[in-house]
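Hi, can you check this record?
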Amino acid sequence: MNTTNSINRIIAGQISARIGKGKIILLFGPRQSGKTTLVRGIAEDSGLDTLWLSGDEADTRALLSNTTSTRLKALFGSKKLVIIDEAQRIANIGLTLKLCADMIPDIQVVATGSSAFELADATSEPLTGRKYEYHLFPLSFGEMVTHHGVMVEKRLLEHRLIYGCYPEVVTSPGEERELLSLLVDSYLYKDVFSLGLTKKPALLERIVQALALQIGSEVSYNELGQLVGADKETVERYIQMLEKCYVVFRLTSFSRNLRNELKKSRKIYFWDIGVRNAIIRNFNPPHLRQDIGGLWENFLLAERLKANHYGGQPANYWFWRTHSQQEIDYIEEQGGVLSAWEFKWKASRPPRVPKSFLDAYPGCVTGYVTPETMEDFLLSGEQNLG
């Protein structure tokens, strides 16, 4: 099944609208998230004569590494759209893309990358003012609601909490466990290893497994290091790699006014909850799980961040906790407005935001999210506010 045709990817229209605007288009996202399919569909819709190049191929890497504008013009010929897939594998890709932007502005270049290492970091300076940047994640709740409708997607919630939202997993019912196991075993760490950023894959896998068992809990690099047999600096460096490969993301603690607020804590979550479950080999249904609270929290956070990104609503986000164990699952600051959210899988009554927090941050909007009310939080950002 063609994922682009079957499920409307929100950013496809946004990228299409940028074609021909004179800047490089960069598309980042994890492997198997549908980048190639998405860009192929955009190319077909554009009707432009297209050249497709892949950074996975050795001859392409040789052609695009340490090149000149003259060689690029000869390579591109009369093509009007050039797509460079897996561009992060090409040495000095930032300078190559700069040459494209400056010396061949009448050709639209689109570059995709399944990690932000070489492509994002190397181009941050050369491509200043010359790029549009997008991120594609596993399928979002909003995309699937557009396809299925709210009612059907809510009925599938428990399924999503177990198997996640990778495109091929969503569109291949009955094959979820096999596909997720293949993804975790074959693709998840491929960029880290291929770029030579770690020489200890077994250590990386132990760190990932430890993180998978700690979703919803604060993560101590010291304690994690003791658990996996590494120092805290190594643990932090490996986690940063995983972030850049779109495996995990972190929430840091919110602290501005109260003396007993935790100031340097962090929680780490997975961009796809199915990947997390595959890592620990646990596909049990929610009613048989001890970690359903963490699953629910991880799911909501990943979906909220996707919704904000696709909706063009930049936000700051944290969790909040004090030394006296008062806590709030999610703090968001958007457009100068501070919001505090509690996530409850089962709630007999609305949870309360601690009075000390409300006193310290007057005017903060508060809300809570349950499976019954999730669509307001994930589709519009408004939920039982009061």
In short: The chain has two domains: 3-135, 141-379. The domain at 3-135 is CATH 3.40.50.300 (Rossmann fold). The longest strand covers residues 327-334. The chain is about 45% helix and 15% strand.
